[in-house]
Amino acid sequence: MTPRWPVVLFDLDGTLVNTIDLIVASYQHSFRTVLGHEWDVDEIKSWIGQSLVGSLKNAVPDRADELFDAYVEWNHAHTPDMLSDYPGVHDLLSDLLAAGVRLGCVTSKRYAGAQWALDLAHLAELVPLVISHDDVSNHKPHPEPLTAGAAKMNCAIDDTVYIGDALVDIQAARAAGMECIAVTWGAGDREALIAANPTWVVDTAEELRSVLLPQ
Predict the structure, then answer these.
(1) What does the pLDDT average to over 153-175?
(2) How far apart are CA 87 and CA 51, in angstroms?
(3) pLDDT for the residue numbered 207
(4) Is the pLDDT of residue 215 over 90?
């Protein structure tokens, strides 16, 4: 199999690791603790892929710091129990490496949390963390994380594809001039992802394999 792209960059939450329920529950805990009520689940899911602190500042500017602290404390306590794998992802990453593809992860998560998630999912040795929240000034849907990721991998935009589950992933890739693949097993709404005009939309790891490693 000949790889379609020599470099593949992945989003983390909702793409490489299943943290959607964990993230939603962390947000709801913070809102209950600080505000005394929960938030709309669909709106919370629309924030996944963006900066946590940025999302909280947009939602409740005057209480964002308190919400952030409550979120982080609860999230850290429950990550080991609630983080899980997506079927077929580990094997796909192994096969991409065997085919000579260079892999990286570009995420809006802060470095420590992102590295911990990769370690817990046993993916750290397969796909190194390239760009985290801590490495850039602007966050998805701004293209800076993706262009910074390509630069750190020392590759051209045209040689790189970005894979993510959120609308902001596709928007960031398009803004960067990078081809992109939307996966539907994460937080994003399938129709909204299609409307954002990704290069491909896939529903399973096996479908993603057929795009990345065509026969």
Answers:
(1) 98
(2) 26
(3) 98
(4) no
Residues present in the chain in total: 215
Q: Interior CA angle at 30 toward 169 and 42, to 5°?
A: 45
Task: Compute the distance between CA of residue 48 and CA of residue 45 in angstroms, rounded to an integer.
Answer: 5
Q: What is the pLDDT, as a whole number, of residue 106?
A: 98
CB burial of residue 12 (10 Å; 0-12, 13-18, 19+): buried
Amino acid symbol at 181? I
Q: Using DSSP, state whether 126 is helix, strand or coil.
A: coil
Asked if residues 79 and 22 have their Cβ atoms less than 8 Å apart, the reply is yes
pLDDT digits (tens, 9 = 90+) for 21-60: 999 999 999 999 999 999 999 999 999 999 999 999 999 9
Question: pLDDT digits over 84-121, tens only?
Answer: 999 999 999 999 999 999 999 999 999 999 999 999 99
Per DSSP, the three-state class of 90 is helix
Other Cβ atoms closer than 10 A to 112 = 11
* Bridge partners, 7 (sequence order): 102, 160
Tokens representing residue 192 in the block: 């909204």
- Whether 193 and 184 have beta carbons less than 8 Å apart is answered as yes
Six-digit token pair at 197? 């005009």
Per residue in 165-184, pLDDT (tens digit) is 999 999 999 999 999 999 99
168: left (phi over 0), alpha (psi -120 to 50) or beta: alpha
The enclosing H or E element of 136 equals: none
Give the 3-state secondary structure of residue 139.
coil
Residues 6+ apart with CB under 8 A from 145: 106, 107, 108, 131, 135, 136, 138, 139, 172
